[in-house]
Amino acid sequence: MTGSTPQPRSFVREPARRAFAFELRETRLQFRDGDTEMSPTYVMLPTGQRCNRLFFCGELTQKEKRGDNAPFYTGRVREPTGQFFVNAGSYQPEAMQQLSKIEQGSFVAVVGKPNVRETPDGAVFVSVRIESIVEVDTETYRMWVDDTAEKTLERLEIFGTTEDSRKAQEFYSMDLVSVKDRVHAALSEIGF
Hints:
Radius of gyration: 18 Å
Mean pLDDT: 91
Number of strands: 9
Shape: globular
Oligomer: single chain
């Protein structure tokens, strides 16, 4: 018998995708990639990008601490196309602590996991569970808008040609011209 030691399993995080708030708000398709409890959960963005983690920037316009025994924070982060609903609780202690220290009105960069849930009355609510949130300057925010516009337009160019984008094409009824208009309006709002 040879004395081989088991190699540690490497863990590779999914890349955080860039998407505007208006696109995330329209997201409805959420799925697990695999059959086990540990299989990653994704949302399918309407532009055809599977997304396990998001990266976005914007202005923290609202922040609220809720709960006494198990406190958690909720908030809203606004960018040119709309707002992201964010939250952090006891399962994200670092993110909760980071969010608690940031003043409303600050520009922030957020990495988090998107979640789609249906309310009892049939409405759909899309939020992001924060993994990390930090304060950033306006130039970083502007660069994020520019990068996100570029990534969104790239997804539109290949829309319908990849397996994921064909799945999105079947599931969503998306007006590509309207999406392009929203992207260009976002760029105009920040002066690009």
